[in-house]
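Archive entry. Fields below.
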Amino acid sequence: MSQIVLKGVSYSYSLGEGRSLKALKNLSFSIEKGEFVTLLGMNGSGKSTLAKLLNGLFIPSEGEILIDGLSTASEKNTFEIRKKVGMVFQNPDNQMVATIIEDDIAFGPENLGLKREEIVKRVDEALKSVGMEEFRERTTQKLSGGQKQRIAIAGVLAMRPDVIIFDESTSMLDPKGRDEIMDIARKLNSEGITIINITHSMEEAALSDRVIVLRKGRIAIDGNPKEVFSSELVDACGLVLPLVTASSKNLIKSGYDFGCAVTSEDEFVEGICKTLSK
Amino acid sequence: MQNIIEVKNLTCIYSRKTPYEKKALDGINLGIEEGSFVALVGATGSGKSTFIQHLNGLIKVQDKKTMSVSVGGKSLSDKKNLRNIRFEVGMVFQYPEYQLFEDTVAKDIAFGPKNMKLPAEEIDKRVRKAMEVVGLDYDTFAERSPFDLSGGEKRRAAIAGVIAMQPKVLILDEPVAGLDPAGREEILLLIKKLQEEVSPTVILVSHNMDDVARLADRVIALKDGKVVADGSPKEIFADRELIKESGLEVPTATRIADRLRERGIDLSENIILMSELEKALAEKLEDRNV
Amino acid sequence: MFRDVSFGQYYPTNSVVHRLDARVKLLLSLLFIIGIFFIQSYFGFILTAAVLIFIVIMARLPMASVMKSVRGILFIVLFTAILNLFLIKEGRVLVHWKIFTITENGVHTTIKMTLRLVLLISGASLLSLTTTPVALADGVESLMKPLTLIKVPVRDIAMIMSIALKFIPTLFSETSKIISAQKARGASFDTGNIFARAKALLPVLIPLFVNSFRRADELAFAMDARCYNASEKRTKMKKAKIGIGDIIAMLFMCSFFVVIILERYYFPTIGINMDQLIFGGLV
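PREDICTED_STRUCTURE:
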């Protein structure tokens, strides 16, 4: 069985006065253990709603979500699911509860009621995993945006999750901070953790195994980056292709041959060199 | 062209005489020509935000004797100029939608012009013009609450609130941060339009070198509060050593051209735009086929 | 305008004072504050100031960090001082001009009142300067534990307290950002009468509230996502333990308290007046 299964999931926000807004409409798909999935889509396409459904922060209005076979709708599963599916949010300042870094990382394990020695061990491991060991006893205020997000990741890791959802976690960071976070996401993925990255960055999407594009609450495209970047629906979904992909399309008209849709600078460079050396 | 902004000897030290003392700006001298599009770049903490806040007097010059900032020939150290200069130098802060406060979009945009004590008809005219320029239809949006707009619309409403003052200089601090790709494109195109129609001089703070290469005609790079590079995008990005030292990156096109050159493909060192790269590569292929 | 306000923000130096048990620090701060209310003599104030300075030194804090908290309430201090100075009519008249009278008693009361306020605030800020919000909240939780018997949600109260403390600096920096942005649109906060000024604050307060609600919302999601309220038995990474340092601190503060009480109630009965002894005829 797949790690994450969605069956006919819809979600509506109540707008009061009996009106409601349907944010997600009849979604069905599954995600396997160890996948690196990117969720793309314009603001308002339902990405963040989907993220909050996956760890039981929201419950589907219709349909069902199963995490390792456990339904998110059942209250007795809630904490088991949240333990499995960790979440890193957008604004680094709004997800830290403590002033001292180790206290913040300990928050999750403390909530789980773990023994003290176990908490200390997990905090150690989590800090090491994001490369922030020497910051353990410092305060969170003087950190850069990238460092704060690394602490947020550590806070999630301390719960030993199987899945981590990044909900636009890089959007408030400078390029250096973005790279740091994406490097960590890929490292964690290589250690077997399933990653779901919600982002606006096509460059980040290019790094993943699978890209799901949402449009008006439905899945518009689902495939590997190459399939998605060469889809005719890109414009309609409000996506803007990475510069190299867009450029490769123009160059094909001039007679260059890249063999397949270009998703990285490496492929772009190889295609040019190959064509010119023919 | 004449300089609309003159900065002399500007140094700014935070938390002076405490263990946290930090030199945010260190001896900055520069002039900005009227009608130019300047990109201000530099890593986080390089002093960009302190610098731009000096340009409209939000941060005061620390030593009037040795330093000065002037706009249109008027010194900011002179208190009676300060208010007028606020209106001449419009500042769009990061995430400007977090400063919206009125109950309708039109009222929020009118806040600046009202503070300028303009007559009511003029305020109304400016609000309409500002909304038109940023692409918010007056009839649809004027009476709506700014808090009910989408993210991109909020950002445009907030920008309209600044350009309704019709400032001569427009400063934008990372105006596309946090937007989706379509929203990014809209705002970037909007900025060019604003320069043509409202504010002839634009200063853009950005981390994205592709945007900088595309939009700016001058790049000023800050590092540790000092100007480490100042020139046209082509000049700046051609100096790879300098770019590295300043903690910056080159545009995608420049990086790819470098990689192709390493592979033995003869390309100019001046490529900063993908369109330039495409043109050069198309010519290469044609030459070979001839 | 808000840049320098950082009332009692945790100041990490890892000194012996920082390492004391938060519960002990809470109780001793309380004792210190009660002590201050018993002081009547200049001797008492000098002694208290000396104790305070001693603690600041032991805590390896810069004096400025303590003074900063006092600066935050300077207005209140000056206001009470002026009221006292002019409203107290008893005692020998020192100055008399039109309706203003300053008496000797007035001067003494004013000086003592000011000292009391300054020492009070400094003492309270010492607690928050040397104790992290989490430790403080844990301390409160632990001390309030008996109240859970009558169904007081002690754990939630402690959590709210620790989060409130953590977000104070964020709130200040956000306020100063919004002020800058509105100033850039020509808002002025220092002209006009009191009503105009209050009205001028709306463009700051409204976004501040809206943003705070958004923040609170996001934080609530983040806390839920990390299993807040998952278990009845929430554990703690840091177990507070009463150590030798805590016992020394307790003995130290208790002796301080005893001296203050003795000086006020017992010394006069055996004919000792500390102020007379130290200052002679001055007071």
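CURATOR_NOTE: Residues 60 and 81 of chain A are 15 Å apart (CA to CA).
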